[in-house]
Write a structure and sequence with these properties.
alpha/beta, Rossmann fold, N-(1-d-carboxylethyl)-l-norvaline Dehydrogenase, domain 2, 13% strand
Length: 332
Amino acid sequence: MRVGVVNAGGWGTALAVKLANQGHAVSLWARRPEQAQQLLADRENRAYLPGVPIPPTVKITSDIEQALLGADAVVLAVIAGFMSDICRELRPLIGPETLLAHGTKGLAPTGYARPSEVIREALGEKIGSRVGVLAGPNHAEEVARELPAAAVIACEDPDRGARLQDLFNSSTFRVYTNTDVTGVELCSAAKNVLAIAAGVGDGLGYGDNSKAALITRGLAEMWRLVERYGGSLSTVAGLAGVGDVVATCTSGHSRNRWAGEQIGRGRRLSEVTASTPMVIEGVPAARGISKIARDVGVEMPICEGVCRVLFEELAPREALRQLLAREVGEES
C-alpha cells in the first residue's frame, strides 16, 4: 500500500520505518522544512528517535500534499494539541475511501475532546466515524527496532478495522481489532496521567508495592470513566488499558514517567517541560481527564492528585498523604 505518515516525531518516524520494512511505499511528512532536510541528510531522526536508520525507500518531505499524494492509507502520529490544525490541512487531501488511523494518546488542550472527535469535527462524519485508533504498549524505540510488541486498532467500522489490522500487523507486531474507540482513547489519555504518578513515586524513592497499588487503583479509576462513557471492560483489561499502563508506568522509555520522577525529586513542572524537546502528553491530559471525570460524576482521586501536584503546587508527599487518608471501603 501507499502510506502517508504525518508527522516526523518519534512515533511517526517509528511507524514509517516499520511500515517501510513491511514493504509498503511510505512517505513521511515533517512539519518544518529544515527538519525534513536534516532527516534526508542523516536518514535518522536524531532528535526524536536516535540510532534508528530510516530506510532509503521512505520518502521524506515537508510538503503535505506530496506526502499524501496517491495514499491508500494515512497515519496521523501528531500530539493532541496539533490535531485540529493538522486536520484542517488534511481536509482537501483525504477522500472517503482513504484508510485513516491515528496514534495520538491525549486530549485536545481546550475542550478536552478525544482525537477521533477532533477528526470527526474537522473532516466530517463520513471520514471521522471510520477513523482507526492505534494503541497499546508501544514505545517507539522498540517498535522501530522490530522488538516483539502487540497493539490494538479500534474502529467503529469493522471492515476498515480489519484492513488497518492488515496494514500494521507483522511478524513482530501483533495487532488485534476492537470497536470501542471511546474506551481506547480514554485509556490512552489516562494512562499518561497514571505514569506521571508512578514517576513521582519513583522520584520520592517509593518501592514496588506502592507502584503496584498505584497501577491497580489507577486501572479501577480508568474503568469507572470508560464505563460511564459507554466503553468496554475488555478495553481496560486489554492492550490499550492494562498493557499500556504497565509499560508507561514502569519503562525507562516513558516520558511521562520520567517527568513525574523529576517532579518527585523536587523539580518544578516548568523546568521539566523546558528540559526536553518531547511533549509530555500526560500534563495537559491530567487537566482534561480530571475535568471530564468531574463532569460525569466519576471519582478519579489519583488523577485529581496528579492535577493538583502539577497545577496547584501541591507537594507530592502531601498528595500521597491525602490519597491514603481517604475513607476505606470495599475493593471495586
